[in-house]
Amino acid sequence: MTTRRGGLLDTYFYFFMSLLIATVVVYGFGQTVAGRLIHPDVPRPFLLYVHAAAFSLWVVFYIFQSALVRTRNVWLHRRLGWFGGGLGVAMLGLGISTAITMSRFDILHYHLADAAAFLIVPFFDIFAFSVLLALAIYWRKKPEFHRRLILVACCALTSAAFGRFPSKILPFEWSFIGVDVLILLGVAHDLIVNRRIHPVYLFGVPAFLFCQIVAWYTYLHNSPNWLRIAHAILD
């Protein structure tokens, strides 16, 4: 059995991470929400507002679920988990459809040359989130697996927020580093508290990082093969 050594760090870690993720999301999107959603120069598709509402609800839900565990309301946490599963499924459809819709919007209204190439980044983010969430649901009766999978899934969703950070803090081309730092906080927590890395991090994080690097490399280098696929999706 794992010996707990972390004290307050172990007790409040996941709740703290839920607040940190919310802070990243609020700060990142706070840089652009006024100009792109509240007072846009060109009216945005309604789907974008639905997407923003659903993903914001997920962040609030994650904080609430973390708080329920921290206050030992595990029964309610588990009952509400099915709502989270349904919301996660909705986010998969919303994430993909919104990425396609906004890529078409950016090409039509702003003539962004890299809009098609960039499509692979939000596709990866929502795919990673969905796979991790599915595994978390599958292992919902194994808390040590479940909580880590949910954490990494939520970290994956912060990519768009980090991408909106001021360039002097985090250049857009390196925004994925912000996601990785959040995930590595989970690894550091394991090393401090348990003196070992949990299999979720040991096997899952390298796979996540590899796919993440492939996605960003494909985007930044305008892979011809991916561009053919992206244009076929957008046409």
Strand percent estimate:
under 5%
What is the SS-derived class? mainly alpha
Uncertain runs: none
Instruction: Note the run of SSEs as H and E.
Output: HHHHHHHHHHH
Q: Main beta sheet: strand number and arrangement?
A: none
Could you explain the architecture of this structure?
With 235 residues, this protein is an all-alpha fold. It has one domain (8-234). It has helices spanning 8-30, 33-38, 46-70, 74-110, 115-118, 120-138, 143-156, 159-162, 176-193, 199-220, 224-234. Helix 1 (8-30) packs antiparallel against helix 3 (46-70). The longest helix has 37 residues, at 74-110. The N and C termini lie far apart (55 Å). The mean pLDDT is 94.
Summarize this structure as a short list of keywords or feature phrases:
single chain; 0% strand; 235 residues; 11 helices
Any chance you could write out the topology, listing elements then pairs?
Layout (H helix, E strand, L loop, with lengths): L7 H23 L2 H6 L7 H25 L3 H37 L4 H4 L1 H19 L4 H14 L2 H4 L13 H18 L5 H22 L3 H11 L1
Q: What's the short version?
A:
The chain is mainly α and 235 residues long.
